Structure formats: structure tokens, C-alpha cells
Amino acid sequence: MNPSSEPSSSPPRLKLSVKPAAESIIRSGHPWVFSDSIRRQNREGEPGELAVIYDRRDRFLAVGFYDPSSPLRVRIVHCGDPVSIDADFWNARLRATLARRANLADAMTTGIRLVNGESDGFPGLVLDRYDTTLVLKLYATAWLLRLPLIRDLVLAELRPERLVLRLSRNLGAAGPVHDGAVLHGSAPGGPVVFLESGLRFEADVIRGQKTGFFLDQRENRCRVGTIARGSDVLNAFSFSGGFSLHAARGGAKSVTDLDLSHHALDSARRNFDLNRGDATVAACRHESIQADAFAWLGQARPASYDLVVVDPPSLAKRESERARAIRAYQTLNSAAIRLLRQGGTLVAASCSAHVSADEFIGAVKAAASRPGRRFEILETTGHAPDHHASFPEARYLKAVYLRFG
Questions:
Q1: Architecture of the domain made up of 214-404
Q2: The one catalytic residue among 79, 222, 284, 351
Q3: pTM for the whole structure
Q4: Which of 159, 191, 212, 276 could tie 202 with a disulfide, CB 3.0–4.6 Å?
């Protein structure tokens, strides 16, 4: 192993051996090694340093980022034959990642995920593009130690107008850098504007959730636009109105945003204003309701909408919440179904990684069966190509489309 471009340290290389079951999991391509899978190590490790993993026969197995304070002890960077983890390694990996997305964006879509963490071989790192602004979000301490390296590689390869740094909560204050720091270019005067299938949206890249927008639902938003013509649409947990805008451009008669946050509803109004030049959007009646969606859906007038989108935030942030979340999905979608007119469509989505697609769709089907109405499943969807998931724990996003008689 060549430590070139790695943080310098005087101790010998950190070496680990893992249990047989973990060896098999690593060889299968899974990118995580948990603390209870480690059999022994030659010394205490430092946060973010490279750890070399050996198999039972003392042969090189993999190398990854070490975190002594996390149950997720190692994030695998490379598995197979030994390689040098240096600037050339990361540059080649970045180029390969960008090549996989070569045909996913165009002049009409300038918001896209360019690097999707472990699934692209960058464990704990996300890179999103919003037109000429790039947002780098870090979830692992290891990348803070390598920030100059990854910044320089991104700038050289993509040449953005601006590069913004976002930090996950677990990283906290990170010395000279902070969440929302501008690593290159000038600070934006406010949200930046990008295109999604020709529609204009704002992204708060400095303080907004995630990297400023929920890019992962792009394909489902576009699908909703194709089925919304002539409909009265309810967008529950509407956030900044992405589903609503696509429905409006698709010819919806009306769209109603439902969200507890007035900031989210204000953002949705601004997004509609950005697109008033589109005659179809301008002709659609746009309303907002600030309320708790769980409570409001249960009290609203039945049979009021032709299309209801239910896309809540994660309802299971840990495994212990999985059973409760499944019940909540059933309750939530049961209330939404009650609001559909005959022939109406429900679009139900989940971003809870601890709830599987089968469990989620099962909960929605159970909700659909309760009213005694006929229904058919039109389609199920998962991750968009730029948010592809290469291992089970990364497969958080799922959606199901149902039509009711």
C-alpha cells in the first residue's frame, strides 16, 4: 500500500483481520465492516485513517476508512488486489463515476447527483450538481482529512462556478471548515436555480435539507406530470412543491401543497413563480395548506381529489422503528385513499431505508384493501440511475402507483 496523498502518520499501517462471515460479505462487494466483525488489529486506529483488512490466511482483502467511535468501523474503499490509494486512484474513480452519468443530464435537466457515496466507490461522500454550482456533502470524518485532495480533483474535472461544502450532523464543527462553507467561487446571494425537465427550481445549497433539494425523486415527479392532466391534485408532505409543479405543467386543474413548514410552502410558491411563464403552469390553481399531514388527511373531506401524492420524510431512522413505521405507512395511506374520487390515483413513496420495498408496498396494499374499493397497481419504482444503490442498505427509495375504482 502506498500512503501517497494520505494524511501523514508515524505509526505503522493499521491492520485488521475479520471474522469469516465478514470476509464473505466484503468479497461480495458490501462496503461496510461493523465493529463486531473485527477479530483483531495491530493497534488503536485514528479517525479517518486507512485500515488494511487481511483474511484468515493473512492475505490482503480490502482497504477502507477507519472510524473508532462508530459501530460502522470501516467503510471499504477498495477490495481485491492491493492498490495505491492516492490522488490518481481517486481521480480515476471520479472519472468512472461521471462517465456512468454521461447521458443522464442535458440542457433541460441541470440538477443531478454526480457521486452517490458507497455505491459509486466514495464511501460517505455525495456530490450534487445544481446548474453551475456543485455541492459536496460529507458523512465521514475521513473526507475532512482529504478535503483539499477531493476539492482539487472535483474542480479540475468539472470546473464549476461554485463549490459548496455541506456536513452531516455527526461531523459537527470541523475546524476551519463549516457546514455551508464555499470552497470555490463566490457565495450565492440566495438559492441557486436549476432545471428539471425544463422546469425551474430553487435549491438552498447553503442551509437547505440534504444538499439543497431532493433530487432523488426526479423521475417520480416526471411520472406524476404524465398522469395529472385534468386532475385536482393533493401533494402531501409537499416540501418545495416538486410534484405539484410537474402536475401543473402536466395539465392539472388544481394542485394543493400540504406541509407543516411555512418555509417549505414559501419555497413552493417561489418555485411556481419561477415558472409562471409556462402557460399550463399559470393556468393551474395553486393552493397551500400549512398543517400536520397525518392529522389533516384524517379530517379532510372525502373524495376531493383525483390524484394524491404521499411522500413523507423517513418514518424509520433506525431498525427499532421499523414496525411502527410500517403501521404508520398503512394509516397514512389509508387516510389518503379516502380522499380519492372514483378512478383516482395514489402515488405513495417511502424513503425509510429500514423498511423494505416489500414491507412498504404491503402496507400500502393493506391500506388500499380496507375501504372495499377495487384497485390496481399501475407501477412500482425505485432509485433513479444517478442515485443507484449497489448494496441492500442503500436501497431506501421506493414508490407505488395505485388506481382506484
A1: 3-Layer(aba) Sandwich (3.40)
A2: 351
A3: 0.94
A4: 191
